[in-house]
What does this fold into?
Amino acid sequence: MSARESIIPVFVPHWGCPYHCVFCNQRQISGAKKPASPDDVRRAVQSALALLPSGSKPQLAFYGGSFTAIPVQDQEALLTAAKEILDSGLISSIRLSTRPDAVDDAVLSRLHGFGVETVELGAQSMCDEVLALSGRGHTSADVEYASRLIKASGFRLILQMMTGLPGDSPERSIRTAEKIIALRPDGVRIYPTVIVRDTMLYDLWQTGQYTEHTVEDAVSLCARLLPMFEKASIPVIRLGLNPTEELSAGGAAAGAYHPALGELVKSRMIRSEAEERLAGIVPGSRVCLFVHPKKLSQMAGQHKCNITYLQEKFALSGLAVCSDPALSEQEIRIKTDRQ
Ligand code: SF4
It folds into this structure.
């Protein structure tokens, strides 16, 4: 998504969804109490437009459920309101999220008729055991079939994956990322698992049948996943659940919930690059790591954790992070008092 594109979300929490994924409590995750009506769609656009900077390209997005599993007459009522707004020029496009097994030719043809541009699919994992243990009710073959159909029908495709689900492992998540890359989506969202209250996952965790996927687990795994998507030129448009008041107030009981998870992951990635560059450094050296000014805080890490980590790992007598505007955002330059 370009910087000028802005999402106007309209939530349809769990509406029409015939399943109960173990991690799902859409009311807590989206912050919405009830599904939207056509009037809510109009109101959401009006209030969002008043706040958006001029020149932005607003996109109306139906999120939080399985849009194409909603009864058809309700889908059409929402899409009619959306299409009227699209035709009036107030928004630039319509997008929605749904389940892989709620997509077929008839569904996609209906979406085309209402001007939908982007379809987001909750793939979550490409490991069938993980999908089954998570109560998803679909298989990885459904994800592959729906993804190909969506792309062949001319829509933009966004795939969502999760890490740390029941039965999951870092290796399985890496394999999921490889399979998602092979489907060539236009973008990816990565949601490390959060244990939300009033979900089956919360009960499994409370009874010791599920081990929490911690913020640290998510950071170290996503620091491996992100470069895979970058190398494949597939943008990761979101990493981690959007913070909501309910989640922050205790709805997120445990798991990988952090308001700046994406920043933590990027900070871990730049730390890994520094580790490679520091290999072979003489213990006891004083080192200055030069980075582009925009990368200073990522290099230092939250509460300077990267500085502490690198200093201890390489037994340095001193380590400073310094700014060099001449460097690109990808470069690290090292200056040391010993060679
Ligand atoms: S498919 Fe989506 S809405 Fe339905 S239970 Fe799973 S996460 Fe929730």
